[in-house]
Amino acid sequence: MAPSAPSQVAGTAAFSKFMHVLQLVADSEQPLNVGALVKASGYPRPTVHRIVAALVAEGLLVENERGALLALGPRLIQLASRSWGRSDLRVAAVDELKRLRDLTGETVHLAVPNGRTMVYIEKLESPSAVRMASRIGTSVALHATAVGKAYMAALEPAVLEPLLRGLPLPRYTGNTLVTLADLRGQLQLTRERGWSVDAEEHEAGIFCYGAVIRGSRGLPVAAISVSTLMFRQKAEPEAAYVAPLLEACRVISERVGEVPALAGADIF
Q: What pLDDT is stored for residue 23 in this prediction?
């Protein structure tokens, strides 16, 4: 009888720890030291020391002059740049994202699902002098963002329901939806009209409109948002933001549908 397959690929647990530490550094607004990583990760200090030393040796993390604070290293940035530069999704989306930014005059984000979050993989800034704090690589909540709600509303019920049952619903502002009943209602409205909103739910003063990009099987593979500051929002937002957003998503979805690797939603 052939031996049974191991329940976990050898080295997976160790690799997961490395990735967790790397992600903590990536998600932090400020450089972290080992003590902060120990607290945030829950790993023993010797374990964190070993992980950090290995990541620094490989150029995935860098230390400051005193060796106390850590930030993402040049090798990681180089790998990410090459990956995104060759991305089929980027090739399909880049022209329409630029056109959408120019038509609306507002900041445009492209995001893909990553577990229980969405990750911004492209951001085109508004030509306005006011800049938004979001950045490429940021993970954002599904329930509090236009890209997250657009993505969830497009999921099949068999996929959506388990996701909702395990979804954390932290409050970011006074407008954040923090109950499943409210979130379900918002997702239903998004399905009916074909686009989502973030009505100052993730960040005060910022209103976003979102829509989904679908693969050839009709499954959601990404989402786009147009983000505007409340004080300069145009009088007819559906014409100013939603119509060009939906057209951009339609065109990109057609292009994505022609790429076999992007046919389904499980590639991200």
A: 87
118's enclosing H/E stretch is strand 117-124
CA distance 3 to 63: 45
Torsional sign, CA 93, 125, 106, 197: positive
Contact call for residues 136 and 122 (beta carbons, < 8 A): yes
| 168, 174, 180, 181: CA torsion to nearest 10 | 180
Cα 85-91-93 angle, rounded to 5 deg: 120
3 state SS of 163:
helix
One-letter amino acid identity for 179? Answer: T
Cβ atoms 34, 49 nearer than 8 A: yes
Torsional class of 11: left (φ above 0), alpha (ψ -120 to 50), beta (otherwise): left
Q: CA-CA distance, 126 to 102, in Å (whole number)? A: 8
H-type alpha helices, the chain:
12-27, 34-41, 45-57, 74-85, 88-104, 146-153, 157-165, 180-193, 237, 243-257
Instruction: Tell me the pLDDT tens digit for each residue of 4-44.
Output: 444 455 568 888 999 999 989 888 878 888 999 999 999 99
